[in-house]
Fold this sequence. Notes:
212 residues, Lipocalin
Amino acid sequence: MRPRGVLAAASQPQWPATWAASAQPVGPFPDAFSTGLEIHFALLRWRRGGQKGRQLMTTTTNESRLVALAHIVSLVLLLGSGCGKTAPTEPALMPTPTPPVEGLAGDWSGTMSSCGPITASVAQNGSTVSIAFTSSCYGTRLKFVGALSGSALSGRMTKDGSPLCQSVAGPSSGTAASSHLQLATERILAPAQSNPFVPCTGLPSNTIDLTR
Length: 212
């Protein structure tokens, strides 16, 4: 007589093909978890498959072990499916540009540290600012073109050339407000000499302070 609770070698459970084919994913679960549920529900169908299916197992203890094994497999697959994955990162937000100061166009007057009194005619188109200067030292040869970001002004100062000397230019920056404008320019070197008898000059470092 076969000992109770022991499966004979010839009675080892064999999965019927119809039951294996009927195991389908259940609900909107992740693939790994769904796989475990397929095994679990397939086992339940096996248990309830009639007298022939019930005879494949000799005790409920063996059935419980198989169900527990299905749960363990689903847990291992679920944990393994998350390895190596990182959470999506939020896209970096672009900083909002600061609107430029408006209403700078018009006539201004003030001083230039390397020359003395100076006047300026300012034109503005959105964030673009152009200034034409008039002074006793440089006449109308000084010009500035730059861009505004809020009240910060940056661009290039140009000293126009002459028939014998090339134009020179260098960076210039400052601040702008409705009634006050200031620009600082580093020294601009003299251009190459085209005529040894006519010296060409650059522009010394200076600060221009304008009001209106």
